[in-house]
Fold this protein.
Amino acid sequence: MTKPRLTGWGLPLGLLLLAASQAEAARQKNFRRTRKAAAAAPAPLPAPRPAVPPTVCESVNRIFLRVDALVAEQAQKDAKTFSRVDRIVREYKAPITGLGPAAVPCLASIALDPMRLEKSRLWALTFLTFIKRRVVFNPVRALLLDQTAPVELRSTAASYLPLLKGFCDDPKSPEEGSCVTRQDIDATLCASLEDGKLPAVVLREVLSRAARSGCEQAGPIEAWIRSFGDHPMGKDWENAHLAVLALTRAKSPAATRVLLRLFKHYPAGSRGRKLLYKALLEKKGDLLAVRETATPMLTWALRSEPGPVGEIMALEALALSRDPDSAGVFLDYLQKKDPEVVAAAASGLAAARAKSALPTLEKLLAEIPDDPRFQADGEHARPREAVGRIRIAIDDLWRQ
């Protein structure tokens, strides 16, 4: 019988081979189990990325999503709701203005967006004006001139425009041309008057602002004045008054020529005529510049006046043109019955430098004690002021 072969460790070779085979089988089984468990396990989560801060426009839009929701609540038209919502929305002023000039394009797009709620657009416009930079001017101007924008928005834009004066690109070092000027504001307000269908509320706001500083673009204002009629009443009269003031404040001869043309629009003796006379009395320099137009028009207006009040105002306006050719007109009015009219004519002769009228004026002064026009009666005291004006006119002529 053959003995089993022994290894160096004194174990049969067959046993060693069996043990190695069993160990390998166990290792393979354990490997398959590990692979199966690894395949069933969830994939590891990716490493978190660092948070990216929102852009300026994203911040503005997030705020206005909340504003839109709050404004929608005001549809209930409940006073408490209105007050509460407005108070909450005003609290967004600080975070929005804190974004600086970069927020202007975002707010402008909301203010000019016709699909947005009107009240939300109004809040965007309001927040715009809190960012004191020149870049704010263009969207406010665009909103005023936008004929499709709601009336309240256009009216508010007109009222906000004067507040933008002095807004600069860099407030710390303002340079010429980098700031909003009074001329920029006035030109925008007056340009809006070119819209012949400007809503009444917007028109009133624009005219109120223009009446303070004037409009160099006189043509649109003339058209509006004529549209109010030759005997305007109520709001039409108030608007006509503001429009004439806008022409009065203007510093261009063109505005004065429009005032002169309007004498053909307003009838003699009307308050519209009187308004024009008052306007011309504030434009002494311009009347000299347009003397060739002023003298014939004011002479025509003077001769058409039905009473002394209009005559005096016309004589005073005509005197401001200082036209020697008007001396004959003033001499004619020395014959009038009203002493104030006579005194105004005497002043006009002095303004026209009509030294040839000195003998006539001196004779008039000498005969005043016996002239019934200058005597006291039951209703009027002696017109001392008129006599004084005649004396002053004579003295002025002697000094010339």
Remarks:
- The chain has 21 helices and no strands.
- The chain has a mean pLDDT of 88.
